[in-house]
Amino acid sequence: MGVEVGVKRWEIRGLTSKRVRVFDPDEVTARGAPEADPGSVGLGRDDVESIWSAVVDFYKTGFHPALGLCIRRRGEVILDRTIGQGTPLVRATPKTLFNFFSGSKAVTAMLIHLLAERDQLHVDEPVATFIPEFARNRKQRITIRDLLTHRAGIPETPAQVADLDMLQDPQRILEMLYELEPTYSGIREFLRREISEPLGTSHFNYGVPEERLDEVAIDACTGPKLIWPLKDIFEKALGVSIEELIDISNDPRFRTGIIPSANLIATPDDICRFFELLVAGGTFEGTRVFAEDTVRRATELQTAGQIDRMLLLPVSYSMGFMLGTEPVGLYGIRCGKAFGHVGLSNILAWADPERDIAVALLNSGKPFVAVDTYHWLNIVRLISTRIPRDGSKRFVI
Known about the structure:
- By secondary structure, the protein is an alpha+beta fold.
- The strands form five sheets. Strands 3, 4, 5, 6, 13, 14, 15, 18, 19 and 20 form a ten-stranded antiparallel beta sheet that branches. Strands 1-2-9 form a three-stranded antiparallel beta sheet, with no helix packed on it.
- A hairpin with a 4-residue loop joins strand 14 and strand 15.
- The chain is globular.
- The termini are far apart.
């Protein structure tokens, strides 16, 4: 059934802050396809190596068994590397699959926008137009736009949702949460046909087949143990404790199921391809997947600087993406046109049209509150400062 779940086989050290064993970075670093000459896209070799050095520093904290970073600039791969171990016994490589967690929402949102592009729905229609049962309990006015912008007003997650056996019975989940009928039928095939195949990805979909479970990096719960009030805030939002959530995320039932908001599994390069598709205005290597207007609609501002109850920070949202802000924001310095999404935790992927870059920074460690995570912020800062805004950008948001 695949690798052993949980983190019991990781060598955990530290009493007040859980960390995994750190190996010699040179021994556990792997590169993907040949990286383009930085000079061909207006950068220096020191720019790229400075960014990677920050990733190595973050690995050395012991918070992440494995990290992967892929960056495209003007469509060219300038960095595609991993560091660490995907499982306790196997070194991570650029072919290692990672869970995108909440970043999956951005991918699911683009499937909705693709349906809107084809006039199969309108984002301002009530959800109940398509699923009448959704109107129960005063939800009849909630629109698709409300869902995409995190403004539906759905309460915190009930603890019963953490029952992994329910993943094989989506009707039971939806009846418990919303008294709905199944809505996930065909979504995995739709994603594969409309996005994954045109991008030529290794694997870019919800969950994995059982025979590929061993390719997915095992997640580890690291960092300081949460205490009140953060402990209560996260548990209300997630329905379970952080420790339980990580165990659930490693369970084969989670990893083979279909969870459009939480289990898009892919390599760093796969996710980078997705954001390259968007930063190029809906095309990838000559193949059009989305109309330019669809990408603009999906990334235009909907809510500015409202407090995200999960992140406990002000976040600006489009219909599916977390947006950059000026002068400093989620994607670094002077990245007001950038858009992307975070994932649990320290996972971040984004596109920045002004710099003509697509970035996927993935990991398998889950430290929620730790001083050493400033290294993560430094990676993002260096990407935004080492890669200048590009006057020849291909697509204007």
